[in-house]
């Protein structure tokens, strides 16, 4: 059965309120109408290794030749359910997101299992069950086997057979197969399959030397203690080792990593021949990294391929990426020359070439072409506010730009490397999806998303470039002007701040990256302002590392450059400037209010770091070193010592079971305020962690909004 789909250009229309006014439900995640105002891109991919497009629309799949403007119906949910039912599997209520492995084979995941289906033969080629109550699933399609954790234990399951216990708990403090080092250093999983699927490397984390930290469950009849392990700066850190389980011999060995035990074992990966593991090992001080090669059969250290040192910190974020068919050559990402770039090494540890270089950053590696002649990268080469994709020759390093339109691009590359699907947005462009070739030539536009705020009242968004006080760096900023802006009037300002590492709030994407809440506040008559200070990401090593050992100092200095700019504007009411931020932004909010009490009239600080000695080792010690090594830096950043400098109206908000910025931070601040007779407002969210999510987020943002309305 074939149908012509008269629709390749999909227009996503928002549902507008009758009066053109945004509501909190429209702009806050968790709101009933939030996704009506979110630019939704077309669901299109390449069809496996074929140069065809495959589009999912509701419960149907359509296929389109690259040179055609017509998409042809391929199959729908009923067809897939017929196959599943025939082979004895449960049917589906809706069509899941399909991942195309080849031209005719696709895979998908349900709550119960992983499936692979052959479209041509109409058969289920693989079904691997998902154990109820389990987590950290890691599927190896080649072996048809999934690794997963249940509690602290690590298991394997092949097909729908019985589970196999790989590593059992050695008590409540020892965990197998989970992420480690509190998800720092790019760690987002705890298991690592060998390429042939015959071996599984995994983390073992011993927390017995880490202090218990009390969280309290107030939902119980009698409030119940729920301890977590929280390694605070300067105190005992958990100890990690890496195990290897052989599916053929059913035996496990551990890498012989030796002392010291409180190191960080990051970026674990297998060599292409399944024989060795590469592990980026970082010392506790986080300024010396060894890339070590281990024999996976016995755990012995074979060699250190190379080392990286930095007087401030070195932070491996990506595992080695092996070049297909190149006899062990791999790509390594490093900021050692001042920006994140790509280097090609051999398995003997010899540097073969620096592949990319310049005063810009590689922000993502998308993969190789089929012949492994090119690697595709996303970068800030054109402008730190934008993301463009380049095709880089592995032989010469020559770079060809794939994306041409201004803005931030998200790109999918065809398996042969000849074509790309790019979805991009810019300040005034919600979303455009195009099919291009990788020489940078546009083939055609597949979708233009209409402004989801059409018919609504939104203020004008401006992108600004300011300077640091010493003139050394540009500072990117965004300003949202009030609806019906009148330059002869005076407007209050709300500064939304984050300011911490690994963040970038300002980009040349839709609405400049402004959050819906800022548009909402502009509708209510506020100027909404945000600036990326030193310490934030994608601007090079010197910009990011300037904050070392002195958190809250240069960041505030840079934010005040933004304030001075605002104060210079005739339409800004300099007596009505407020500030709001969460987490690092909460720390920044109180830092700004106490360092410049004459400037900020109102502030709302959510989940704020108050005293960095209460924060965890992996993040805190990277930027501040240990408290005993940097007492002056910790003292200057300790907001408990600044309560008497507070003049403006401040509300502090905290999740009562926050495992990231523990409740002790804000409670200690309240305690100091009471001791010193300083009045603040305070609101906890019971049973919420570091962020208030779901429908309760509407409650949170209504409270924040009311606070500014009442006092600013």
Please tell me about this protein's structure.
The chain is mainly β and 712 residues long. The protein contains 10 helices and 44 strands. An 8-stranded mixed sheet has the order 37-38-40-39-41-42-43-44, sandwiched between helices. Strands 1-5-4-3-2 form a 5-stranded antiparallel sheet. Strands 14, 15, 16, 19 and 20 form a 5-stranded antiparallel sheet that branches. Helix 5 crosses helix 6. The longest helix is centred in the C-terminal third of the chain and has 16 residues. The protein is globular. The N terminus is likely disordered.
What overall form do the CA principal axes indicate? globular
Quaternary structure type: single chain
Question: What proportion of the residues is helical, as a percent range?
Answer: 10-25%
Biggest beta sheet summary: 8 strands, mixed
Mean pLDDT: 95
The number of strands is: 44
Compute the CA-based radius of gyration. 27 Å
Query: Which strand order do you get reading across the main beta sheet?
Result: 37-38-40-39-41-42-43-44
Low-pLDDT regions:
1-18
Give the CA-CA distance, first to last residue: 63 Å
Our estimate of the beta-strand percent is 35-45%
* Number of discrete helical segments: 10
Structural class of the helices, strands and pairings? Answer: mainly beta
């Amino acid at each position: 059965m074939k149908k012509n789909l008269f629709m390749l250009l999909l227009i996503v229309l928002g549902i507008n309120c009758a009066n053109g006014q945004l509501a909190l439900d429209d702009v806050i995640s968790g709101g009933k109408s939030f996704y009506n105002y979110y630019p939704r891109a077309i669901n299109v991919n390449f069809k496996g290794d074929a140069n065809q497009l495959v589009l999912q629309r509701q419960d149907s799949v359509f296929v389109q030749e690259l040179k055609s403007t017509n998409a042809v119906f391929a199959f729908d949910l009923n067809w897939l359910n017929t196959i599943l039912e025939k082979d004895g599997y449960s049917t589906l209520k809706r069509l899941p997101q399909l991942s195309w492995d080849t031209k005719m084979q696709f895979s998908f995941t349900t709550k119960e299992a992983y499936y692979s289906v052959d479209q041509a033969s109409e058969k289920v080629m693989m079904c691997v069950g998902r154990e109820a109550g389990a987590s950290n699933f890691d599927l190896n399609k080649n072996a048809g086997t999934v690794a997963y954790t249940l509690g602290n234990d690590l298991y394997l399951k092949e097909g729908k057979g019985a589970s196999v216990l790989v590593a059992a708990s050695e008590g409540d403090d020892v965990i197998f197969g989970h992420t480690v080092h509190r998800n720092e250093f790019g760690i987002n999983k705890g298991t690592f399959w060998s390429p042939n699927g015959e071996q599984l490397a995994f983390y073992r984390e011993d927390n017995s030397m880490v202090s218990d930290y009390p969280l309290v469950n107030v939902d119980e009849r009698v409030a119940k203690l729920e301890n977590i392990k929280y390694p605070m700066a300067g105190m005992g850190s958990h100890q990690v080792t890496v195990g290897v389980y052989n599916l053929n011999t059913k035996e496990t060995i551990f890498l012989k990593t030796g002392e010291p035990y409180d190191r960080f074992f990051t970026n674990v990966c297998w060599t292409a021949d399944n024989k060795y593991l590469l592990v980026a090992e970082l010392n506790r001080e986080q300024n010396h990294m060894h890339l070590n090669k281990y024999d996976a059969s016995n755990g012995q250290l074979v060699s250190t391929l190379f080392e990286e040192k930095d007087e401030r910190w070195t932070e491996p974020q990506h595992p080695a990426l092996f070049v297909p068919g190149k006899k062990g050559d791999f790509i390594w990402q490093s900021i050692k020359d001042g920006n994140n770039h790509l280097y090609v090494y051999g398995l003997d540890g010899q540097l073969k070439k620096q592949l990319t270089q310049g005063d810009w950053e590689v922000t993502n590696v998308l993969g190789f072409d089929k012949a492994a002649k090119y690697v595709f990268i996303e970068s800030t080469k054109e402008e730190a506010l934008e993301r463009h994709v380049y095709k880089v020759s592995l032989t010469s390093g020559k770079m060809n730009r794939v994306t041409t339109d201004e803005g931030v691009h998200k790109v999918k590359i065809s398996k042969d490397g000849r074509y790309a699907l790019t979805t991009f947005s810019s300040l005034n462009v919600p979303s455009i999806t195009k099919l291009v070739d990788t020489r940078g030539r546009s083939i055609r536009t597949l979708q233009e998303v209409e402004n989801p705020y059409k018919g609504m009242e939104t203020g004008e968004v401006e992108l600004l470039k300011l300077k640091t006080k010493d003139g050394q760096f540009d500072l990117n900023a965004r300003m949202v002007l009030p609806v019906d802006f009148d330059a002869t009037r005076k407007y209050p300002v709300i500064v939304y701040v984050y300011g911490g590492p690994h963040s970038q709030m300002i980009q040349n994407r839709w609405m400049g990256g402004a959050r819906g809440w800022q548009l909402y506040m502009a509708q209510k008559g506020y100027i909404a302002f945000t600036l990326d200070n030193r310490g934030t990401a994608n601007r090079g090593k010197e910009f990011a590392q300037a904050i070392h050992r002195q958190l809250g100092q240069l960041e505030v200095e840079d934010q005040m450059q933004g304030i001075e700019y605002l104060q210079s504007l005739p339409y800004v009411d300099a007596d009505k400037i407020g500030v709001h931020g969460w987490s690092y932004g909460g720390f920044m909010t109180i830092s700004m209010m106490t360092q410049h009490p004459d400037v900020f009239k109102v502030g709302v600080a959510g989940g704020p770091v108050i005293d960095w000695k209460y924060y965890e080792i992996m993040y805190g010690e990277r930027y501040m070193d240990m408290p005993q090594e940097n007492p002056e830096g910790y003292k200057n950043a300790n907001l408990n010592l600044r309560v008497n400098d507070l003049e403006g109206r401040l509300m502090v908000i905290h999740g009562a079971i926050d495992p990231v910025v523990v409740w002790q931070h804000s409670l200690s601040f309240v305690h100091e305020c009471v001791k010193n007779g300083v009045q603040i407002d305070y609101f906890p969210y019971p049973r919420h962690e570091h962020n208030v999510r779901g429908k309760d987020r509407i409650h949170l943002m209504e409270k924040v909004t009311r606070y500014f309305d009442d006092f600013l």
